[in-house]
Amino acid sequence: xxxxxxxxxxxxxxxxxxxxxxxxxxxxxxxxxxxxxxxxxxxxxxxxxxxxxxxxxxxxxxxxxxxxxxxxxxxxxxxxxxxxxxxxxxxxxxxxxxxxxxxxxxxxxxxxxxxxxxxxxxxxxxxxxxxxxxxxxxxxxxxxxxxxxxxxxxxxxxxxxxxxxxxxxxxxxxxxxxxxxxxxxxxxxxxxxxxxxxxxxxxxxxxxxxxxxxxxxxxxxxxxxxxxxxxxxxxxxxxxxxxxxxxxxxxxxxxxxxxxxxxxxxxxxxxxxxxxxxxxxxxxxxxxxxxxxxxxxxxxxxxxxxxxxxxxxxxxxxxxxxxxxxxxxxxxxxxxxxxxxxxxxxxxxxxxxxxxxxxxxxxxxxxxxxxxxxxxxxxxxxxxxxxxxxxxxxxxxxxxxxxxxxxxxxxxxxxxxxxxxxxxxxxxxxxxxxxxxxxxxxxxxxxxxxxxxxxxxxxxxxxxxxxxxxxxxxxxxxxxxxxxxxxxxxxxxxxxxxxxxxxxxxxxxxxxxxxxxxxxxxxx
Length: 524
Known about the structure:
Elements: H1 3-21, E1 67-68, E2 71-75, E3 79-81, E4 85-87, E5 89-93, E6 97-99, E7 102-103, E8 106-110, E9 114-116, E10 123-127, E11 131-133, E12 136-137, E13 139-143, E14 147-149, E15 154-155, E16 159-162, E17 166-168, E18 173-174, E19 178-181, H2 187-197, H3 212-231, H4 233-245, H5 247-269, H6 272-305, H7 316-331, H8 336-367, H9 371-377, H10 395-399, H11 406-425, H12 434-448, H13 453-457, E20 460-464, H14 472-487, H15 491-498, H16 505-510, E21 512-516
C-alpha cells in the first residue's frame, strides 16, 4: 500500500469518527459492561493483532478500576486516555492526543501531537504534528511532523513520514517498512506555529516564536506598497481621492466586485475564447488588489499625515508607511486581525475598479465636450417621437429631469418580472433560468430603447449621469448590478428610497439614474 493511500485511509477514519461523535464534542462514551465473567472471555482469534499483554496488565478488564470507553473525540482541546482506561479511538482536532492506556483502533491528532505510551491496535497518526511512540502500535504516520520511537516502542506495520524526521531508540523494534517523503523545507516548523498562534485566534500575525517568517513577509509586502507609491504616485493619489470623496460608492463597488468577479470567471470558463482570458484576468485582479491595498493604507495614513502640506510627510509614500503600521497593529488582535485583513483587501480592489470606471467615464465625456449643451444653447428643437427611443430628450436635459421614486420603479420591475415569467412558461426548461432571462431582457431594453415595458407604462427612462447614450457596457453592468442589489436581501433596491439621487446600488455601479419622462415612450 502506498504512503498516500495509507495516509488517506487513517485520515478518513479519523474524520468519520469525529463526525459521528461531533454532537457530543468530547463526551467519553463508556461501553456497556460485559455480562461474561473474565475467565469465560473468548480466546483471541489467529487473525486478530497481538498486543503486548504484559504491558496491558494494569489495564486488565477484571480490575474494578478499569474503564472501557468508546470513541474519545476532542475539538480544540486535547484527548487523553489514562493508564486505567481503554478506548476504541482517540481523535483530537486542533489539539493533541495522548494515550497511557489501550487504544483498540487508532489514535489521531490533526494540528496537534500524538503520544502513544500504551498499546495501539491499528495506527498512531499526526497531521501537522509529531508522533511519539513508546508502546506497541500497528502503523505510524506523521504528515509534516517528526516521529520519535522510545525504548519500548514496537511498530508492527509501516512507518510513514511526510516532511519530517525519524529518531529511534536503540531498543525500539520496527517490523515493517520505513517510507520517508522529504521536502526541501520543514513545513511544519513554520506552518504549525502560525496555525496555533494566528489561525486559531483569527489573526494574520502574532508575537510568538517561530513566526519570524510571517513578520518578514508582512514587512516585505509593506515595502512593496511603498515602492508602488514611489513609482506611481499620481495613480495612487487618484485612488485615495476616490476613497476619500466617494466612500459610499467605493464600498458598493467593493461589494459588487466580490459578487461579480466569480460570475465573470464562470462566464469565461464556459466559453472557449474566455479560457484564454482567464490567466490575464487573474493576474490583473492580483495586481489591482495589491495597488488597492496600498491605496487603503495611504488613505488611513492620511488621517495622521494630512497636517503636513509640504515635505516628505506630504508624499503618498509616507501615508502608506503610517497606514501600514496602523493596519499591522490591528493584525495582531484576535478576530479583528483577520477582519481588517479581508476588509482592506476587498475595499482596495473595489476602489481600483471604481477609479478606473470614473476615469474611463471622464475620458469619454471629454471626447465629446458640450455636445448637448451646445444644442440647448442654440435653441435646438426637441427630438421627435421617432427619435425618442434612442434619446427622448437632449443629454443634459435628460439628467435634469425629476428622479423616479421608489414605488413607480418597483411597479415597473413587477410588470417586467411578470411579463418575463409568462414568456418563460412557453419556453421548455426556461423556468429554472427565469432570473437570468430577466437580466438579459433588462440589458437589451436599456441599450436599445432606454427603458422597459414596465418603464414605458410608468413613463420611466434610464439615463447616464454623464449625459451620454447608454452603451452595451453600461446596460450589462447595470443588469449584473441588479443581481447584487437583490442578493443583499433587496437592500440595493431599498436604497432607492433613501438615496438623494434615487439611485439603487446597480445605478451607482453603472453610473445611471432613472428619471420621469415628460412624454410616454413606445416599443416602436
